[in-house]
Design a protein that fits this description.
- The chain has one domain.
- 74% of the residues lie in helices and 0% in strands.
- The chain has 13 helices and no strands.
- Helix 3 packs antiparallel against helix 7.
- The radius of gyration is 20 Å and the shape is globular.
Length: 264
């Protein structure tokens, strides 16, 4: 048995578990297509009244919005919420006794869930294309977009890990989750480009880790970040990935000691 076999099994079981909720997945696709239509109508009206982000023509804005919604099918999957559930049920102690790296097991579980939702991107895109026209960039841009998306996925996982890890001290993170989700949706570039924010506030939100989740991949996709700045953009994402991973490691060490002490 390879060292990765347990984590592959975690991902496989999560995929099978998530795939049983077919009606929910179909509803998610329908909801996404409806949001594509509504956002196309909204931005068309805003552009007609000259209320638009600088440097983005209407067709690029519609592309940005549609790709952001497709990304959300994957990025809104939170595999770390199992931490909160296991703490309430007491199963976290059992996980800590297993010969596995527990956070990596939760990551693998999230990967399994993600693969199911990623499969929904294809039908969602096909339905969305009936409503909007999406720009398709050159192969190098597509490649850099997927590299950036992978980094953003990692940052998103660790942000969720930190958020749910607080449950070791509070046992409940629902209120915190709502706050962080609202802030993330607004300041990550998912709802509207961060270039929409003026002055010092715009510069501040670009410096937050949330921008590494949605904004950077999307701005690469629509060409706002030119090739000369690709390396710098990915470096910032990699730095946030390292920072959030390091913070998650420290939190997990402290949380593990807390469980051992409380359990005797």
């Amino acid at each position: 048995m390879t060292p990765f076999a347990p984590y592959i099994e975690y991902a496989r079981k999560a995929f099978a578990r998530e795939a049983t909720y077919r009606i929910e997945l179909i509803a998610e696709i329908g909801s996404l297509v409806l949001r594509v239509y509504l956002l196309r109508s909204l931005w068309t009206a805003l552009y007609a009244h000259n209320a638009a982000p600088i440097g983005l023509p209407l067709h690029s804005m519609i592309t940005y919005t549609t790709v952001a919604l497709l990304m959300s099918l994957v990025l809104e999957v939170d595999g770390t919420r199992v931490i909160r559930e296991k703490l309430r049920e007491g199963g976290i102690a059992v996980d800590l006794m297993k010969p596995i790296v527990v956070p990596f097991a939760y990551f693998s579980d999230g990967i399994g869930q993600t693969l199911v939702h990623a499969a929904a991107i294809v039908p969602s895109l096909l339905f969305a294309l009936l409503l909007v026209r999406i720009d398709v960039p050159s192969p190098p841009v597509v490649a850099i977009f997927f590299c950036s998306f992978a980094l953003g996925y990692g940052v998103n996982f660790f942000v969720n890990f930190l958020m749910n890890g607080v449950a070791f001290w509070t046992l409940e993170t629902f209120g915190l989750q709502l706050i962080v989700r609202w802030i993330s949706d607004l300041l990550s570039g998912q709802i509207l480009p961060l270039s929409f924010f003026p002055g010092w506030f715009g510069r501040a939100v670009f410096a937050l880790p949330f921008a590494a989740i949605y904004s950077t991949p999307l701005l690469l996709y629509v060409g706002i970040i030119p090739p000369s700045r690709w390396a710098a953009a990915l470096a910032v994402q990699a730095a946030w990935l390292a920072a959030t991973a390091g913070a998650s490691y420290l939190l997990w060490r402290a949380a593990s000691r807390r469980v051992v002490v409380q359990g005797g």
